[in-house]
From TrEMBL:
This is FAD-dependent oxidoreductase. Its cofactor is FAD. Residues 13-23 have a biased composition (Gly residues). Residues 115-162 form the FAD/NAD(P)-binding domain. Keywords: FAD, Flavoprotein, Oxidoreductase, Redox-active center. Residues 1-109 are annotated as: Disordered.
Length: 299
């Protein structure tokens, strides 16, 4: 809201001083009054109790309210949007109200954060203040691939953290099970789906990983409708647990990623996938399924 007010104010001040009349009507001279405004009437946009500048003069540094904003006026004469409180309005909020009423200010809320700025939460979405919960993009999340707290901003994580938080605040304790950061993107018909860590992300996080790649037609060669599928499975060298998987195809193979998501969550090893029972029907896949083949290729 503050931004809109500022922007609106900026348009009125800037537009009135230099350009055509703003949407509130009436041409306005620099530092002058609108038609119909009496001398005794306070003008909008000026601070309470502040003296209006002499007609036609703008004090050094600009009008009150403009003056203290860093950046001030842009070249087109409009105030830059800064997202700050209007200086001609009293501050809101419990600390400001307490200060005005002469009461002791409540202590500022200081919650522990990750370097990225996300509020650190436990498996119940509770922050470092037990009375404050955080969910969604503003909160950290547990990564089953990293086996560590991390920051993943996704709607899928946001809605799940909301469910966990709602239960705990409502009195039915529920622990978050962590996420894999599964996600997808479709670029000009090439569908890319992923869960857990890529090789680069794993290495950046300090994991010692290996990977297996495989590419083949999705269906047997005699099927008219067909498309290539590329798959990579990333696994930890020591434990051999799967920590990531990525698939790419012009056809929709996205549902396969959910199985890898569960595999990462459950700490399944790459070797478990080698003989996993995966159905075959020519309309969907090959008897030697691309998941089977990729897992079999792991050293
Ligand atoms: C372009 C884009 C595409 C995306 N696509 C996907 C996708 O395909 N899949 C996926 O999983 N995720 C996607 N995401 C991420 C996903 O949108 C976010 O992770 C998710 O919306 C986070 O939800 P949230 O409720 O935490 O925050 P938000 O959805 O950002 O909601 C926060 C709300 O709080 C309001 N707000 C902020 N400050 C204040 C305040 N001071 N007072 C009152 N209200 C306030 C905001 O206006 C907003 O409505 C995408 C994000 C972007 C930007």
């Amino acid at each position: 809201m503050g931004e809109h007010v500022q922007d609106d104010e900026g348009r009125r001040q800037g537009g009135g001083a230099r350009g055509p009349a703003g949407r509130h009507g009436g041409r306005r001279r620099r530092g002058g009054r609108r038609r119909g405004e009496g001398r005794g009437q306070p003008r909008q946009g000026l601070g309470r109790g502040r003296r209006e500048p002499a007609r036609g003069r703008v004090p050094a540094g600009g009008l009150p309210g403009q003056a203290r904003r860093r950046g001030g006026q842009a070249r087109d004469g409009r105030l830059r949007r800064r997202g700050r409180r209007r200086l001609d309005r009293p501050a809101e909020g419990p600390r400001a109200r307490a200060a005005r009423d002469g009461r002791r200010r409540p202590p500022a809320l200081r919650l522990r954060r990750l370097a990225e700025g996300a509020y650190r939460v436990d498996r119940h979405q509770r922050t470092s203040d037990p009375d404050v919960y955080a969910v969604g993009d503003c909160a950290t999340i547990w990564s089953n691939a990293l086996r560590a707290e991390t920051y993943i901003a996704l709607a899928t994580s946001a809605v799940r953290s909301g469910i966990v938080e709602g239960h705990n605040v409502g009195g039915t304790p529920l622990e978050a099970i962590g996420v894999q950061g599964s996600n997808a993107i479709s670029v000009f018909g090439l569908n890319l789906v992923s869960t857990g860590l890529s090789v680069r992300a794993a290495e950046q996080a300090g994991l010692d990983v290996a990977w297996s790649d495989f590419a083949d037609l999705q269906r047997p060669g005699f099927m008219r409708e067909n498309a290539e599928v590329k798959i990579r499975i990333v696994y930890e060298k020591g434990s051999r647990r799967v920590v990531g998987a990525q698939l790419a195809s012009t056809t929709d193979v996205s549902m396969a990623i959910h199985m890898f998501s569960l595999a990462i969550e459950e700490g399944v090893s790459i070797d478990k996938l080698k003989l996993l029972d995966i159905f075959f029907l020519p309309h969907f896949n090959q008897p030697y399924n691309y998941i089977t083949m990729c897992a079999l290729g792991a050293e």
